[in-house]
Design goal:
Elements lengths: L7 E3 L1 H14 L2 E5 L10 E4 L9 E7 L8 E6 H7 L2 E9 L13 E9 L3
Parallel strand pairs: 1-6, 2-5
Antiparallel strand pairs: 2-3, 4-5, 6-7
Length: 119
């Protein structure tokens, strides 16, 4: 049986940051809008703080060791149409991202890397 490739995964560095943010803020969620500049980076919020709706797609419920509940990963439907054949790998890089994402005060930001997968 062939193992399914996850749509979204977190690097070890991203998992460490998620654990830190979870300890400070409780349950978390990600949303990636596909806008320009910081809008194209995954934004991390307290779960439910960013309101999702019909224009968003739930791509994953990520299991992070040390975090009790899944971390949801949402993407705007228009961005998903462009990235529907990719696997998203959420990583952490130095630098400040958006002031709205929880990691902003940490001096790092989440970054999505992508790899094409079979359609």
């Amino acid at each position: 049986m062939e193992e399914e490739v996850p749509r979204v995964q977190l690097t070890e560095r991203a998992q460490e940051l998620v654990r830190l943010l979870h300890a400070r803020h409780g349950p978390l969620m990600f949303h990636q809008s596909g806008g320009c500049c910081d809008g194209s980076a995954p934004m991390c919020y307290p779960d439910g703080e960013f309101r999702t709706g019909g224009s968003d797609v739930l791509l994953a419920e990520l299991a992070v060791p040390g975090v009790a509940e899944p971390v949801t990963f949402w993407m705007s439907r228009s961005q998903y149409e462009v990235w529907s054949h990719t696997r998203l790998i959420v990583d952490v890089v130095p630098g400040r991202g958006s002031g709205f994402s929880l990691e902003a005060p940490e001096g790092v930001r989440f970054l999505t890397r992508s790899r094409v997968v079979d359609a």
